[in-house]
Amino acid sequence: MTSTSFMQSPPGPETVIDSTRYLYFGGTSYLGLAAHPEVIEAGCEALRTYGVHSATTRARFGTIPPVDLVERRAAEFFGTEDAFYFGSGYVANHILVSAFAEEADAVLVNSGAHYCVLEAARASRLPYYTFAPRDLGTLAEIVRDFRRVLVMSDAVGPSDGSLVPVLEYCRILKGCERAFLLLDDAHGFGVLGDRGRGLVEEVGMWPSVNSLEGDSSLSVCVCGTLAKALGGFGGIIPGTRDFVSRARRSSHYFDGASAPASAEAGATAKALEIVMQKPNLRQTLHTNTEYLRNGLRALGLTVPAGRTAHFGVTIGNRARMENIHAALKARGIMVPYIGAYTGIPEEGLLRFAVFANHRVDQLDHLLTELRAIL
Ligand SMILES: Cc1ncc(COP(=O)(O)O)c(C=O)c1O
Predict the structure, then answer these.
(1) How confident is the model at residue 215 (pLDDT cuts 50, 70, 90)?
(2) What DSSP string describes 158-226?
(3) Ligand 1 centroid vs 232 CA: distance in angstroms?
(4) Residue 259 DSSP label
(5) Residue 61 phi/psi, 5° resolution?
(6) Ligand 1 geometric centre to CA of 225 (Å)
């Protein structure tokens, strides 16, 4: 997919795209930190102090202080002993696969998962099977044929905001001799769970993940990104010291790639600090999200339940949604229509993203204009 659109401001409730300022409900800056002045200043300061980047790998001298600080703050945020910070959340699944594939005989992947999950599953070079996210029968059936399995999924659908049934997956996998459940919680980190640790915290499983200890036959391993709700940039794998050390050694990402860039590390460390200092940001995000969900329901639309900051709404067919998208755009409101993406319905969907810094009058404005269009 190619786009000729240009974003000409930071992403936020008001965003300039192709020289027009829109009331913006796209993307993933859920906690509204991408343009936070302290985050920007911390990025600039790191850039001035350390240059663009260290021009070496983490295994040499690439751990500049802001990179180290991101790992320490991420560990604090997730309540873990350590965390591995790297250039992009896209490779997080590849790193986990490199760490655990040798202990499995087959990989089973949610067919609607994000592209990076599907690609990482293929890269495992294990026999490859797919299951639809809610097709527990197929998952249980395939799993029965193998002694040791790697099951991969994203935790939250990137476009529709649907949650995978993680407890049901675990119940099935506990029957295996050895199982690994690898979850990419890119859209749950910072949003779901009492402390924003994602879907596994939301369903009460957080402390028992990302550890090599214990004699359970099932290991749940979670990875994600700091580039969405958490307001920074780059991939993250938190966990116990041993777990993180294995993740660092598993692929050559640690010793074969440039360490994260200075500005992004400086900004990310500051964003994590703000997220921890201001848990009310997450509360405001939930209040805003609930407000918009309810408002859309009052317009007669079917809106998925849940606390994710983004969700997909399907209204009629492709042409109808393209028209709604265009009509909103003409009124200065940007709600992306996603026509094709992994894990979405054939006809596509309107993807609504809510931010902690959307004001109620902005949400009301969207609802008023939408009411006029429908
Ligand atoms: C589920 C999921 N994983 C990973 C990524 C990529 O993360 P990053 O942007 O940090 O590379 C995305 C981005 O959209 C995503 O939706």
Answers:
(1) confident
(2) TTT-PBP-HHHHHHHHTTSSEEEEEEE-TTTTTTSSTTS--HHHHTT-GGGSS-S-S--SEEEEEEEES
(3) 13
(4) P
(5) -120, 20
(6) 6
